[in-house]
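Annotated sample (chain length 133).
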Amino acid sequence: RIEHGESFETTYAASKSASKSRHYNEIPDQGMSANHVAAIIDDVHLCDFNPKLNTSSYVNVTSEPEERAVAVIGAEINIADASVYPASIELHNKAVNMIASLWHAPEPKNGDDYCGAGTVGSTEVSQYYYLCI
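Output written by the structure step:
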């Protein structure tokens, strides 16, 4: 529920919400508009990092617009429910097959797909897989 009188057109910085002390460790009694929440998250990231200056990792932390668009598509898919998203499951299996082939995993005896699971972190998945082989 949005606070009475709070306009969706008002920027977060100019809103009544910005003047209130918030405890972000608890679910608030009243909600905020989506654009205000997005502004808060964006402000946190302004202070948090600059992907182009990331020197703590060997992986690419910047992305192209097409990558972000695909990520938005993926965020709306519940891959845990294979019956609703069969094409996404097939795409997942293809990605698992590519990674298994890259790591020279033994081919499945019955000619089916490799056995594997999706993960978010590129470094973590490589380490976990290496430990498994």
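Annotation: The two ends are 51 Å apart (CA to CA).
Annotation: The first helix runs from residue 34 to 48.
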